[in-house]
Amino acid sequence: MILLEPMLRPTTKDLAKAAGVSRATVDRVLNERDGVKQDTVERVHKAIEAIGFERNIQAANLAKSQSYRFIFALPRSGDQFLQEIIKRIDEARSLFASDQIWCDVHQIDENDPHSIATYLSSLDKSQVAGVAIMAPETPQVRDAIRRVQERGVAALPFISNQTTMDANWVGIDNRAAGATAGLLMGQFIGQKPGAIMVIAESMQSRDSLERRLGFDQEINEGFAQLRALPSLETYANEDRARTIIAASLRANPDIVGIYVMASEARSPLSILKDLNIAQSIVKIAHERTPFTEHELKAKMLHGLIAQDPGHLVRSAIRRLKGMVDRRQTFGSQEQIRIEILLRTNI
Amino acid sequence: MILLEPMLRPTTKDLAKAAGVSRATVDRVLNERDGVKQDTVERVHKAIEAIGFERNIQAANLAKSQSYRFIFALPRSGDQFLQEIIKRIDEARSLFASDQIWCDVHQIDENDPHSIATYLSSLDKSQVAGVAIMAPETPQVRDAIRRVQERGVAALPFISNQTTMDANWVGIDNRAAGATAGLLMGQFIGQKPGAIMVIAESMQSRDSLERRLGFDQEINEGFAQLRALPSLETYANEDRARTIIAASLRANPDIVGIYVMASEARSPLSILKDLNIAQSIVKIAHERTPFTEHELKAKMLHGLIAQDPGHLVRSAIRRLKGMVDRRQTFGSQEQIRIEILLRTNI
DNA sequence: CTGTTAATGAGGCACGTGCCTCAAAGCAAG
DNA sequence: CTTGCTTTGAGGCACGTGCCTCATTAACAG
């Protein structure tokens, strides 16, 4: 590919000349207005290829006075991981200001699908260009997302997956994340046989199910001497968590590993600390937060499976913008990595 | 912070009104032209704060017909890791086209500091806005970087660090990367005592020294039963590599782990494969390439310490642009992560 | 042929900023 | 006071694109 000198970058004027039409017609083709013969459309497209025309989006945005207002619909409840996300949205605000992008957070009750649907249906194209939604999958929410999209507002599942949105969502492959936790757990434990405790907030959500699936698969296939216990569900209730964790420890004296599957790991990890379990038990949790970071450095935690909150936020914004601009987004950058964090690469 | 409605975003005109001056004076202040009283400058700056003015960079670039031409000065020699970098630069080309950024690759002979210095001194501000340099640190290169910066061309050490550039470079903390390799190695080996082979391309470069330092520290502090052998230097010579690796294997029958420290791991790993070593020996290498990715999936490699080449490239471009625009760059996004890759999160 | 409609061209203003010129005002020294 | 210098204002054109109006031409049916 021969690169043109910056100065000579073709404009719509050049394109018009190359296609043998007027700038008005070029405009009609580029912005998909009708009233242009198919012949002409093709001629212009060929000219675009021929001279390597690329629309100057900055000038276009300037002309349109276009700006993008995006909303992050996040759960009202949540602990440090949620705070990290919100912090990154704040950061992104100034980062994307030069692209005329404004972001706001709207808190939703993630366990009330009806209110989420109501909120989504209140969004108007003229006010909001797009919305990133972090909420567990339910039929109501799924339908609401589809409807808001039909009204011209870009909608993007965020961190929590939604089946319908096949490829178009922002987050990690939770099956692979669970598998990574399983593999790391198995390798760290080594030859020692025993049981692994698995702590989840709830096994209702798709994310949890997928993590568990991946985790079990790795343990079963690669580490025959280990057995993963049934998931303990805390329902985000600290008392309940304390009770069932203690009971499980008593019932399974051969525990050699603990996998905290929930995104908010502080509460379960604190309980484990209170219960004063042996440091030799391999502990793996999810997400980097001030608490988990500290535990990792203090060697109270052996590893962390994480997704970068800043990357999640920025990727969501870029993809929402791409949806609004009707561009395809670029794969490699928007792939959210499953990070493994040890105390040395925190 | 109260966000203004997109429509009402203040322009230089609003700023002029708010500061009680003309647009011409605002322009003089914003673009740091002289001939403005100190009083007036301060008044304008206060007004900027007061109304939350932020320059519309897109419009500014449009007005200036500004475009940015960046050059990646990369080694001529190199294998798959270098190819990955070049591939990402290609990707970035289209990604940043909308920001009027053009990138090109220029191959340098990384072992000839003089020719690098000559090349850098040939760069002209009017042709090239910035250059990312991947070359080992030498006094000549260091000085050349400083000189090219003084001539108004942004210069940024890339992947290979340069002492002078304290914070302003793009790449990972190699000490931490080595430490991560060490910790992972130790944890994966478990209780088994033995020796660890360390293979490097050369211990002349600062990057290698730092990795080795971090690796040794983790092994020595955390795993007393392991001993890391002296570094084997291949000098990128396959025959030499084959000889010294085979000799080391014979001399140390208790080898339980192998750490390939070089960025280009294909050649050493292929040699190990030919030598048919036991699969139980834990092998850790650097950088994700088609080859290492394949080996990881085939379970011939236990773990990979990597830096995302796409992220490296994009971060370099953003930072170069930030330097040209005289903006400060944003920390959290520009921090290059030390990734740990297993076959589950590849 | 004429009349009608579809397709295209010509031209201009707008967006927010940079950069230029020229005039006007302020200010200090003589 | 005048002279000369510094500081400020007023205005306009440019960048590339979107979007509008109005005129003109091509295509086609009757």
Secondary-structure blueprint:
The structure is a homodimer of 346-residue chains.
Chain A: H1 12-19, H2 23-30, H3 38-51, H4 57-64, E1 68-75, H5 80-97, E2 101-108, H6 113-121, E3 130-133, H7 139-150, E4 154-157, H8 174-189, E5 194-200, H9 206-222, E6 226-233, H10 238-251, E7 255-260, H11 266-274, E8 282-286, H12 290-297, E9 303-306, H13 309-324, H14 331-334, E10 339-341
Parallel strand pairs in A: 1-2, 1-3, 3-4, 5-6, 5-7, 7-8, 8-9
Antiparallel strand pairs in A: 9-10
Helix pairs in contact in A: 1-2, 1-3, 5-13, 6-7, 8-9, 10-11
Chain B binds a DNA duplex (30 and 30 nucleotides) through α2 and α4.
Describe the model.
The structure is a homodimer. The first copy, chain A, is of the alpha/beta class. Chain A has 3 domains: about 10-55, 434 Repressor (Amino-terminal Domain) (Orthogonal Bundle); about 70-170 and about 310-335, Response regulator (Rossmann fold, 3-Layer(aba) Sandwich); about 175-305, Response regulator (Rossmann fold, 3-Layer(aba) Sandwich), CATH 3.40.50. Chain A has 14 helices and 10 strands. The first copy, chain A, has helices at about 10-20, 25-30, 40-50, 55-65, 80-95, 115-120, 140-150, 175-190, 205-220, 240-250, 265-275, 290-295, 310-325, 330-335; strands at about 70-75, 100-110, 130-135, 155, 195-200, 225-235, 255-260, 280-285, 305, 340. The longest helix of chain A is centred in the first third of the chain and has 18 residues, at about 80-95. Chain A is elongated, with a radius of gyration of 25 Å. Mean pLDDT of chain A is about 90; it is low at about 1-5. Chains A and B meet through α4, α5, α8 and β10 of A and α4, α5, α8 and β10 of B. Chain B binds a DNA duplex (30 and 30 nucleotides) through α2 and α4.
